[in-house]
TrEMBL record:
This is Uroporphyrinogen-III synthase. The lineage of its organism: Bacteria, Pseudomonadati, Acidobacteriota, Blastocatellia, Blastocatellales. PANTHER family: BLR5956 PROTEIN. GO terms for molecular function: uroporphyrinogen-III synthase activity. Transmembrane segments: none annotated. Residues 35-270 form the Tetrapyrrole biosynthesis uroporphyrinogen III synthase domain. InterPro entries: 4pyrrol_syn_uPrphyn_synt_sf, 4pyrrol_synth_uPrphyn_synth, UROS/Hem4. It comes from Pyrinomonas methylaliphatogenes. Gene3D superfamilies: 3.40.50.10090. One of its GO terms (biological process) is uroporphyrinogen III biosynthetic process.
C-alpha cells in the first residue's frame, strides 16, 4: 500500500507544479478516492469531491453463494477490480471458507492494484494481463492456457459488478469455455451529491479538469444533470479518462477526452494530468 502511495505522489511537492491553482473534480467512489485526491493535492491542485458511484453489496448473494459452494468445478477465477476482490473474499469468509481453498484454481487479476489486494489476502495470483481491456485479458488467458483450443471445456468464474461489459465472458464462451458471471457488488449513484455546488463551479468557469475512472462515473454524472450531452456543461474543462472504455463512454455523452494514460491506473492518470497541464503553461 505504501508503495502505491509513493507512486501516486512521487513527483509532487514542487512549488511550481503545473497543477498549482488548478481545480479538479474527482468523480471516483469516495472510499477509493483518497489516495488519488491526495496525489493531486500534493501537486498543488484543489480537489472537489463529486463521487458518482457508491459500492454496495449485490441485491442477492444467491448466485455468488452457489458459485462459492461449487468452487471445485472451476478452473479459473478472474478478478477485474479491487472491489471484486474485497466483496468476493468478504462473502467467502462469511460462509466459513479459507483462502487456502483457492490454491487449486488459477487466478487472474486485472491490474496491479487488484493483484496486490489478492496477495495481501493470501491469494496466489497466476496471471496479470499487460493490457487491462477485456480484449487484452482474453488474449492473455488464451496465451496462458496454451492457445484457443485449450480453452474448450474450461470453466471460469468472474465475480464482479452486477452491470459490466460482456465481451470477456462472451469471448470465452465462443472459444468453448464456460464463463459464470456472478454479481459480487453493485455500483449505484450516491444520493447525497451536491449538484448545485458542482453546477455553480462549472458555470462559473472555476473547474480546470474533471476525472472519470469508469464508465459508470460518466453515465451517472450525465444522469445527475439529466442530460445525454455533457459537452456544453463541461465546455472549457479538460476531461481525463482512466482508459479506453471510459473514454468511449465519455464520447457517447459528447465529450472529447483530453487526458488518457497508457496504463489504466490512478497513478498513471495523475502523471498524465500533470503532463497535460505542464504543456498548457
Amino acid at each position: 500500500m505504501e508503495a502505491r502511495r509513493d507512486d501516486l505522489a512521487r513527483t509532487a511537492d514542487a512549488p511550481s507544479s503545473p497543477l498549482a491553482g488548478r481545480t479538479i473534480i474527482v468523480t471516483r467512489a469516495e472510499a477509493q478516492a483518497r489516495e488519488f485526491a491526495s496525489a493531486l493535492e500534493s501537486h498543488g491542485a484543489r480537489v472537489i469531491h463529486c463521487p458518482m458511484i457508491e459500492i454496495v453489496p449485490p441485491e442477492s448473494y444467491d448466485l455468488l453463494d452457489e458459485a462459492i459452494d461449487n468452487l471445485y468445478g472451476y478452473d479459473w477465477l478472474i478478478f477485474t477490480s479491487v472491489n471484486g476482490v474485497e466483496y468476493f473474499l468478504r462473502r467467502f469468509r462469511e460462509l466459513g471458507h479459507d483462502t487456502s481453498e483457492l490454491d487449486e484454481l488459477r487466478v487472474c487479476a486485472i491490474g496491479e492494484a487488484t493483484a496486490s489486494s489478492l496477495r495481501e489476502a493470501g491469494v496466489r495470483v497466476d496471471l496479470i494481463p499487460n493490457r487491462f481491456t477485456a480484449e487484452g485479458v482474453f488474449a492473455a488467458i488464451e496465451t496462458a492456457v496454451g492457445g484457443r483450443d485449450h480453452l474448450r471445456g474450461m470453466v471460469f468464474l468472474l465475480p464482479r459488478a452486477a452491470v459490466a461489459r460482456d465481451y470477456l465472458p462472451r469471448a470465452l464462451e465462443e472459444a468453448g469455455a464456460r464463463a459464470d458471471v456472478v454479481p459480487a457488488y453493485r455500483t449505484v449513484r450516491p444520493q447525497s451529491t451536491d449538484r448545485a455546488r458542482i453546477e455553480a463551479l462549472l458555470i462559473g468557469g472555476s473547474v480546470d479538469c474533471i476525472t472519470f475512472t469508469s464508465s459508470s462515473t460518466v453515465t451517472n454524472f450525465a444522469q445527475l444533470f439529466d442530460t445525454t450531452d455533457l459537452s456544453k456543461l463541461l465546455e472549457g474543462v479538460a476531461v481525463a479518462c482512466i482508459g479506453e472504455i471510459t473514454a468511449r463512454t465519455a464520447a457517447e455523452y459528447g465529450l472529447q477526452t483530453h487526458i488518457q494514460p497508457e496504463e489504466y491506473t490512478t497513478a498513471a492518470l495523475v502523471r498524465a494530468i500533470v503532463a497535460y497541464f505542464e504543456r498548457q503553461r
